[in-house]
Amino acid sequence: MNPAGIIFGAGARINVPASFTATTATGIGFEDGNWFDAFGDKNNYQNLIGDPTSFAFDLAQQRSIINAGELEVPDNSTIALIGGSVINTGQVKAPGGNITIAAVPGKSLVKISQSGNLLNLEIDPPRTPNGQPSLITALDIPELLTGQAQGIETGLSANSNGTVQLTDSGTTVPTETGTTIVSGTLDVSNQELGRRSVTVLGDRIAVIDATIDSSGSNGGQVWIGKHPQDNPDNVRLNANRTFVSRDSVINVDGKNSNQNGGRVTVWSEETTAFYGEITAGGAKEPTPQAGSDRTSDGGTVEISSQQTLIFDGKVDVRAPLGKNGTIRFNDRNITIVPGTEGDGQQLGDNPVGFDLMEILSGDGGTSGFTLGANALEQVLGNIVLNASNDITAPNVSLNFSGDITIDGVNVTLGDIKTNGGAITITASENLSTQELNSSDPLTTVGKGGDVTLNGDNIQVSWINAQGGIDGKGGNVEITTEGFFRATGTFDTLIEGKETAVSIATVGGDGGGKITISHGGNGQTPFEVGNSITNGTEGAISTGDSTILPPESFLTSTSSDSGDIEINTGEPSSNATSAGQAMATNLLGNSSTSAGQAMAEDVISNSTSAGQAMAEDVISNSTSQGQAMAEDVISNSTSQGQAMATNPYSNPANIFPSRPQLYQYSLEFLPILTQPKPQAIAPKTEYTQINHKNTKLEPNYNLKNLEFVNFTPKSNLINIYYNQPAPQTIAEITNTNSTNISQSLAQSVPQQVTSKSSKSTLEAEADVKQLEGGFTYAFEKHLGISNTPIVTLEEAQAHLRQIENITGLKPALIYLFFKPEFKPETTKGNLVNSKGLTSTKPERERTENRQKTRSHWQENLDTQLELLVVTASGAVIRKQVQGATRSQVLSVAREFHRSITNLESANVYLPLAQQLYRWLIDPVEQELKAQKINNLAFIMDVGLRSLPMAALHDGTGFLVERYSLGLMPTLSLTNMNYVDIRKFQVLAMGASQFKNKNPLPAVPVELSMVTEQLWSGKALLNEAFTVANLIKARASQPFGIVHLATHSEFLAGKPSNSYIQLWDTKLQLNQLPKLGLSKPKVELLVLSACRTALGDEQAELGFAGLAVLAGVKSALGSLWYVSDEGTLGLMTTFYEKLQQVPVKAEAIRKAQLNLLRGTVRLERGQLVTDQGSFPLPPALAKLPDVELRHPYYWSAFTLIGNPW
């Protein structure tokens, strides 16, 4: 031990009978808790017995260990070199034992488990001017290393500029504390002895021109950058950066036919760059003494990073005498590109393969792994690609020599061929591939590889898992909670006839089993011959069994031999009771006979000989009993009584008669008689309601809904309705003795009160009312008219189409303030309990819409409500009590002000959380249940200028969970989807202005967008005119128009708002003159705009931008973002748009990159996860800037069609 530092010169040897440790620690701990301290004279040497257990590093900057000698210990022993930084250029050998080389940054306590003797080595340290010894510092190392100065040969040389190089290669190496440099040889190989390991640890690790050998009995283990025991005590020893050069070799082969390959792990927190060679295979040929029945399997290799992974190396885990091993690549995001276009694959024969100093001395990873297909295909063995986010290789054909396993969040792939290897792909969200071919065409007896797919939604072109003429086909197993689509076919022989198939597992020795489990659930069929929604384009065949198109399966089915199974969940549950039943939100076929039925929402085919009590009943017939409901849709009612509010189409003659029903409903039904206790039957258990309120009511009146003079076209009724006094049902006790206290008192304030639409027709009225009211406001402001109003059915059809095409699960969220007024009613209008008019044609008249909007805007005490529409299922409607218009808008204004003030740090956060509680929390459970991942907001006045991405739930931002968009209304939005990547971009802008601040980043922005990130044409400054824009579009139909200039959305009429061109202000009402709708522009980008906070006209202009411009989507900002922030966001947006051709997903990923710090300004460059881009001089002189604050990224909002 020498805290000043240790150097083993080229001629150094050790001669010890056991293990050996050299350290620059300041203290050594022993088993009995005693310490040996390198400083002072307080050591009790008599008590320093036993084995060392830990090393203490107490100095602020730890000192170095350098080895250029030959350090060797006996068999089964350990060598450990532990210092502030460790450089090895010599040989370290521990046959059958362990080698640990660890660099310890900063003050640390390092615990050890290996036992061994200690050897204290001292060198003559530098002297102070007074002749006193001084500790070696980082600045002393270059001088100390010069051979002439100290006479010690270390394999290192110092340059005149103070840098240090490896003598043989000339490679410059860093000398900072925490750096480990391994060159030369680390050898623990042994044919007989097991449990061998080499461990290399440090904050920054470089393995350069090194040979690491742990081969032999069952292969050994090599850990580079990661401690073998992954627990909190060892986290600090894991590497941030790890580099392995092209001329480095790591060998953990099993040597004999009874020995397996070992394990190699190369790992880092931030950046791993691997260019070297790893062999971890089994024995290459039988060993006579091992016996002919022994096998030798390949080992395991993991090359991973938490942020950035660079790979252009060679890995071989094949096992001729056994099973091939596995190579794992782990990263946050993985992108596979064609040929040799991956990171680090265009570096020639440079043995280092990359700028070592940039890897070890840079400031961090870029959150991604771009891998060239050639490098991946040259890996020999089974491959696992694992990403904590997405894996993309959409236009790449991959050919593997073994099994391939891919696991990510969203997985987008091209063709995959494995020559008999298995294909396993798992996506926690969406999975999309092209051709999957695991057949073995090379041999007649080859077996087709198994194909296993798991994902929320899955789409492939086709799957070929066929075996050879004398071989077996592989099994195909597909599991999705959504839909599966096989959109292509290939030809194969089935029963001697060439057949177009989408899935085939045919084999001469038998076909593999095909199992498809999908989420149709008895509502969406699986169709063979129709791949549009859920099914295959062609046939499905195992050889023994074939399903030829067209076939449709609504429920689960299987072939006679059981080798083809198509499975799905059952339809919504049935409920049947022979007596009295009470149900809430029961969907399915519900029948009740000789008893009473009570429910909030019942969709039923028949109710007979009993009493039916419900808030909502949709029924074909009710006979010989009583029905009472808030909403009743019924074809006939006879020999009984029914009471209801809000009847709809095909209504019965509903009239009050003989009140005999007990109060089970929250809102409408008081106790009228004293009934017997009644049972609730959920599934197979029974729950008894202990009635505490047994008061008898002398009469019953429906109140609160004023008398409506209505001239019906069918047998509708007149209704009196009012809210009753609060009722309470206290104890609910079921048969397993569980007591539940439940208060139903409406008088108790609740943060969120459910107001779900009670029927399909009422939901249609809700949606149409909101669409009509909001659409009229935009029409009035933008000067347009006669917009067809979208119905609920049309809205859900649009969402299903988007879901099928993109794999996203979208939802529309209407945020509005419930009107608190009594609307005027006209002939043909029926008003329901929510103050919304019914779906009569007269409601669509402009004057009615205008009247509705005027009432909506008058009352600041109106309550916030949310209405959610998804691709299928019931509409969700919630009212947030206590959240009035005045309260919500007040918090929204303060949130807007605080988030745009960088000096206020996190002052915005409590406001962001409050808004999240109001605007998202009430419906989030439903969103999670349906796995919604894309939200399109349609919002009321004052909410349209909210940066929704920055809403926060206390653990994360909204944009971390959903991709987002802002729609004016669905009726005003073009919902068609087109892959935007096929369009070019027309980028125009200005960097200088007469009366506005300059935008110095604009020239770089335009250049990057049109030349590096996308393809297109750029027009800057003087060329940025209306005439040139129209001329450019006339000559080429650019699908993307990018305008980098000042834009203002101001109060008042549209002509007050404008986009600043070089020579004029283009007013908002002049946008149609640009002709962007002929042909339609898919995306209009305004990279520097601002919206007047909370002003209705300004919000209408901003949210209606896409409508007025005639484009499908627009991207703009709610406030002026700094030049550097805008450049960072826009650069990353176009990068992501190439990878994920869904606009909302691309802007989300761009925002996340800023939030997570992977996009930043550093050393005069813009750093993204795709590389670095030089900044213009005006920005290059700025200090390094992180763009994590939501000021930089949350303002950017996608308007119109978010897909």
Uncertain runs: 113-140, 231-235, 345-354, 572-751, 820-858
Provide the structure class: alpha/beta
> Briefly, what CATH class of the largest domain?
Alpha Beta
Q: How many strand segments?
A: 88
CATH topology of the largest domain: Rossmann fold
Average pLDDT confidence is: 75
How many discrete structural domains? 5
CATH architecture name of the largest domain = 3-Layer(aba) Sandwich
CATH superfamily of the largest domain: Flavodoxin domain
Radius of gyration over alpha carbons?
Answer: 36 Å
Helicity level: 10-25%
Strand fraction equals 25-35%
CA(first)-CA(last) distance: 64 Å
Please give the largest β-sheet. Answer: 17 strands, mixed
Element layout with pairings:
Layout: E1 6-8, E2 20-23, E3 27-30, E4 35-37, E5 52-57, E6 64-67, E7 70-72, E8 78-83, E9 85-88, E10 91-93, E11 98-103, E12 108-111, E13 117-118, H1 141-145, H2 147-150, E14 156-158, E15 164-166, E16 172-173, E17 179-187, E18 197-201, E19 204-213, E20 221-224, E21 241-244, E22 249-251, E23 263-266, E24 271-274, E25 277-279, E26 300-304, E27 308-311, E28 314-316, E29 326-331, E30 334-337, H3 356-361, E31 369-372, H4 373-377, E32 382-387, E33 391-393, E34 398-399, E35 404-408, E36 411-413, E37 416-417, E38 423-427, E39 430-432, E40 435-437, E41 451-455, E42 457-460, E43 462-464, E44 476-480, E45 484-486, E46 490-494, E47 497-504, E48 514-518, E49 526-528, E50 535-536, E51 539-541, E52 546-547, E53 551-553, E54 557-558, E55 564-568, E56 575-577, E57 581-583, E58 590-592, E59 596-604, E60 607-608, E61 611-619, E62 622-623, E63 626-629, E64 631-634, E65 637-638, E66 641-644, E67 679-680, E68 687-689, E69 731-734, E70 739-741, E71 753-754, H5 760-782, H6 792-806, E72 810-817, H7 846-858, E73 863-870, ...
Parallel strand pairs: 1-6, 2-8, 2-13, 6-9, 7-10, 8-11, 9-17, 10-17, 11-18, 17-19, 18-20, 19-21, 19-22, 20-23, 21-24, 22-25, 23-26, 24-27, 25-28, 26-29, 29-32, 30-31, 30-33, 32-35, 33-36, 34-37, 35-38, 36-39, 37-40, 38-41, 39-42, 40-43, 41-44, 42-45, 43-47, 44-48, 45-50, 47-51, 48-55, 49-50, ...
Antiparallel strand pairs: 3-4, 3-5, 5-12, 14-15, 15-16, 46-47, 49-53, 51-52, 54-55, 67-68, 68-69, 69-70, 71-74, 72-73, 73-74, 79-80, 80-81, 83-88, 84-85, 84-87, 85-86
